[in-house]
Design a protein that fits this description.
The complex is a heterodimer of chains A (140) and B (377). With 140 residues, chain A is an alpha+beta fold. Chain A is built from four helices and three strands; from the N terminus they run H-H-E-E-E-H-H. The N and C termini of chain A lie far apart (59 Å). The radius of gyration of chain B is 27 Å and the shape is globular. The chains are: A alpha+beta (140), B alpha+beta (377). At the A-B interface, helix 1, strand 1, strand 2, strand 3 and helix 4 of A face strand 1, strand 2, strand 3, strand 4 and helix 8 of B. Strand 2 of chain A pairs parallel with strand 1 of chain B, so a sheet runs across the interface.
């Protein structure tokens, strides 16, 4: 599973999952923190749809952490102030970069989490769709 | 008359700051930031947008510290922002990927995906609801439970988890009523890094408009429609929803699938349609449309629409209307700049004022002298 999809599941899903996967690595390997979780900003670059050009919308607060496992440096970065999650994401990122054997069964675990995330989103959006207008033509 | 430099007031200032704290606390109620975050969505969104920093918790803290005063809260948020390092710039965010929570068009009735009202005050009676004064946690839980279990047999069941809908204006593009455009990926300017110069770039204008003070942006756009401008806008599409944010690895070369997802942000986007006449071959005139663009943090529909109107005004400079003058608009809509300047008038101006007073006294003395001479003559 590629990083884009993996990070989306770990951030949108239960944060306990990231914690348990990182713990699995911590128990078997030596993890060194290269950069403690710290707050910073990400500037948001957006395409406007009038001229299709780019502009900066503003910045979002993030927490970033860097951790080293088996010689590979992983990065954990997440919106908001979440030092623990940023650390867990960094450990998981390093584990995937090092192609550690523990990561092999994770794809299945992440797919299950993805299923629950999507079920929740569907339920939320089906409730939103109750506000969809059903136009009726009036007899005048 | 000579001028005297003075100092002092330290103790008075310290007591004044204590007095400010007393005003916030004397009713012996602790307002938790979590309560502000949960119940003041509109104010949080406004403060994040004007503060140009997306984080609900910090906005709630700023609102608490500022006792609900938006201009002070925005100032606090901007000041805090300046202490943080900028770690990354996001990958290009395409608003077509928005996970929609609300989406309407005032121009077209039948739009793909339909008119989705979402959460809006547009259809509420503006009558004070005194029941809210007696609202309890128990009542809130009961209502939420009832809403969650409210199954409607006509519910639309989704195949995909997210509501990602086509843009209404793509229709007009397909019909040739809006000229098609290639993507322009030129790096935008950043007004937080380089001062604004005139003529401004489009990216500078949009950045200043999106972080503009909601009331100021709205008032100027209202003036445009009332006649202090040359536009007749209609809402082509207004949407509220979440935009996913991705950043690339700082060192690795990779494709989009190797990006980091960091979370999403809620935004409001307005695409305003502005009709205008164009001259075609052999002097033939045709009606076409331009789009005014508005996008801001949170759900702030008035601001996004007003931004769309002003965007189009500034694309057509016309010094006969202040709303089409970029210097007039862009230099006066920033909350921190405008409130800061007005507020500084409260600061001691003893020397400058005494200087003015001296001039008035001298002028008056000369006038009196002339009157005396004339009376003598």
């Amino acid at each position: 599973m590629k990083r884009k999809q993996r990070t989306e599941i770990l951030i949108e899903g239960s944060h306990e999952l990231a914690k348990s996967l990182a713990k699995e690595i911590e128990q078997k390997y030596s993890v060194s923190v290269i950069q403690e979780p710290e707050n910073g900003l990400v500037m948001l670059k957006v395409r406007e749809t009038s001229r299709n050009s780019l502009f900066y919308l503003g910045e979002v607060l993030v927490t970033e952490c860097k951790a080293k496992v088996e010689g590979k440096i992983g990065i954990g970065i997440v919106k908001g102030d979440h030092p623990d999650l940023a650390y867990h994401l960094a450990v998981i990122d390093a584990a995937f970069l090092g192609d550690l054997p523990e990561t092999k069964p994770w794809a299945g675990i992440l797919e299950i989490e993805k299923y629950y995330i999507e079920q929740n989103r569907k339920a939320k959006n089906e409730a939103i769709l109750r506000t969809k207008v059903s136009f009726e033509t009036m007899d005048v | 008359m000579g001028y005297v430099a003075v100092k002092g007031g330290t103790q008075a200032i310290e007591e004044s700051i204590k007095r400010l704290k007393y005003e916030r606390l004397h009713k012996e109620q602790v307002l938790e930031t979590g309560q502000i975050e949960a119940g003041m969505r509109g104010l949080i969104d406004q403060v994040m947008s004007e503060g140009s920093l997306y984080n609900e918790k910090l906005a709630a803290l700023a609102i608490k510290q500022a006792e609900g005063n938006p201009e002070e809260a925005v100032f606090l948020l901007r000041a805090y922002r300046s202490t943080l390092p900028r770690k990354y710039c996001s990958k290009i965010i395409e608003t077509g990927e928005m996970k929609v929570e609300r989406r309407i068009s005032a121009s077209f009735k039948d739009i793909p995906g339909g008119q989705i009202l979402g959460a809006t005050t547009d259809y509420t009676h503006r009558l004070l609801d005194f029941n809210l004064m007696k609202e309890t946690e128990k009542m809130v839980k009961e209502w939420l439970s009832s809403y969650a279990s409210d199954n409607n047999p006509f519910d639309e069941l989704l195949q995909e988890p997210d509501l990602i809908l086509p843009k209404v204006l793509d229709y007009l593009r397909k019909e040739g009523l809006i000229p098609p455009l290639e993507n322009n990926d030129a790096e935008p300017d950043d007004v937080t890094r380089e001062s604004l110069d005139f003529p401004s770039s489009r990216s500078q204008r949009l950045q200043i408009l999106t972080r503009g003070e909601t009331g100021a942006v709205t008032s100027l756009a209202y003036a445009v429609i009332r006649g202090y401008g040359a536009l007749h806008p209609t809402v082509g599409e207004l949407r509220v929803g979440s935009l996913p944010i991705y950043v690339g690895h700082p060192n690795e070369e990779g494709n989009d699938e190797d990006d980091y997802y960091i979370g999403d942000i809620k935004t409001t986007e307005a695409e305003m349609l502005m009709p205008f006449m164009t001259e075609k071959e052999k002097g033939k005139k045709e009606l076409e449309f331009e789009i005014g663009y508005g996008l801001c943090f949170g759900q702030n529909e008035t601001k996004a629409i007003a931004m769309g109107i002003l965007d189009n005004c500034l694309e057509h400079p016309d010094n006969s209307f202040p709303s089409h003058n970029e210097e007039f608009v862009l230099f006066h809509i920033d909350s921190v700049e405008s409130t800061g300047f007005i507020s500084h008038l409260k600061m001691p101006h003893y020397v400058t004022f005494q200087s003015k007073l001296d001039s008035v006294r001298k002028t008056k003395a000369k006038a009196d002298e002339r009157e005396e001479v004339q009376a003598y003559d």
